[in-house]
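Dear all,

This email documents one entry for the complex benchmark we are building for the journal club exercise. For each entry we list the sequence lines for every component of the assembly. Then comes the predicted three-dimensional structure of the complex as a token string, followed by one or two observations. Please use this as the template for your own entries, and keep the labels exactly as they appear.
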Amino acid sequence: MLKKILRIFIRDIKSTKREQIALYIVFAPILLAVAITLFAPGLNDTTVNLALLKSDEPAHIEYMQQFAKVELYDDLEALETRVNKRDDVVAIAPKGDGYEIVLQGNENEIVQTYSTMLNSLYEIGATPEDTSATIMSFGKTVPPLKTMLVNMLVSLTVMLAGMLIALSIVTEKAENTINALNVTPLSQTGFVIGKSMTGGLVSLVSIVIALFITGYSGVNWLMVILVGVTSMLLSLIIGFVQGLASSDVIEAATNVKMIFLPIAGSIVGYELLSDKWQWTMYWSPFYWAYKANDMILSKTADWPTVLLCTGMVLVLTLAVFFIARPKIRKGLS
Amino acid sequence: MISVKNLSHSYNKDETKAVNNISFEVQKGETFGFLGPSGAGKSTTQNILTGLLKLQQGEVTVGGFDLKKVHNERFNKIGVSFEQSNVYGKLTAKENLKFYAKLFDVETRDPDELIALVGLQGKEKVRAGEFSKGMKHRLTFARSMLNNPELWFLDEPTTGLDPAIAATIKDIIREQQKKGTTSFLTTHNMFIADELCDRVAFIIDGEIKLIDTPKNLKLEYGKKLIDIEYVKDDKIVKETLKTVDEHDKKRISEIVNAYDIRTMHSKEATLEEIFIEVTGRGLV
């Protein structure tokens, strides 16, 4: 049995390598991981842009450069031209004994206040060391937005496993090869497990690679694998059902996307809804998987919580499986 | 090798039967032809026998296995050649056969040998997706022999093939017959049935009308015929008349005496003509 399952898996991998859409599905998460890594340094960039005159006091320019991104201009006219461009740049120019702050007028209020406060602090000669406050840090070095994007990427990769299965099943249907398999000693269960291995393992490997690329190699891998495998089960079931129900690749891709839309909605719900309304998303296995992954990626996960989340994923997936099982059985016969 | 008793099947699970209370037996080493027009119930019967359709009603044993119970190991001694080719387009001819070979628990034949046997030598490394319809059909046929089947299901094995390739396929079937393979041949082509089958069953509207050897059928139902072509009013007229029928005999005499005969050939009734006579229906 195990040998036959492995044969199905190897055959599917061989076909996937020769199928452009399948290859795209396999490599999309890795490409997205590279994109996140490239743009991540800018995700937490809250720097204020200041325009100063080259003739300004060197001490003023040096002070400002510590806390803002500073651009230097030759004269007041060039300074004003810069301020009037589309982005938020605040100009600070010497005037009499003090300074004049030049604004376009439509800048973000926080940018205006920050620039003004910064100049005031320079004028009174304040430095960060002058504060009486002590610093207590939780030591989080990863921007929360990056964690959110990587978590969404993990969820997307899990969903793509279903897409890969649907694509494979549609191809088997189009080539009428399921009938040929049905007259071999391979059991239906063996066929389903073999096919699931392809979608599951390919996605799991993609998740591992994506986490390495995005810099999350220090996470608890056992937790990542546990959540990945359990959340993938639902994706695989959806892949089988939609693959068997669809007549071509386009229809299968559309159907899988339509099914995943509300599921993806539950992830958005996790991020946007207040604690009071989080319960409205409890129906979705992906909500629990996303929640678990959020903690794992933020390195705040503990085993009881992860096990609770994966337990919820399993219970909800089992419910879907019992509803979908007759359809899958009939479709494969 | 195959025993079918009171087999019925309804796709809608109602009184409309695709196959209605049919019974027959196929002996070991026999080539049994299941003949009938499209929609007669041939494929339904074969699909039940090969396990592709669930047995609803009746008692069926195939290769000693009761179809009411699930026995996947029975496929180790069964080969199925489908009417519509079904091979993996992304895999080469050889990869296709190697993949299926690994799914059996018995010794299998060399893929290269089978590929050559069906005339596809030199195409081992070509992806099946690039094959013509006929080539795919031959690969499907080759696959059905992978496990040296004791029982071989052949669904329209020569349909869509050019005469030379069809002759090759028929030769392969004859070779397997010599080796003692039991074959269940489903076709609407009476010529191939006549050439290859030890016995044939005529099925129409889900019911078997008769089962016998082609020779016996010809003796019982076939009558010597004469194809005659003659000139009447400057036009060529063709008639086929029976030599054993009194009315036809008189007609032959009339034609010979009254008209200019162009051609006149005697012939034996074909299985197709017998089928039409027995069932009252054609084979299309």
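Observations: The first strand of chain A starts at residue 49 and ends at 53. The mean pLDDT of chain A is 87.
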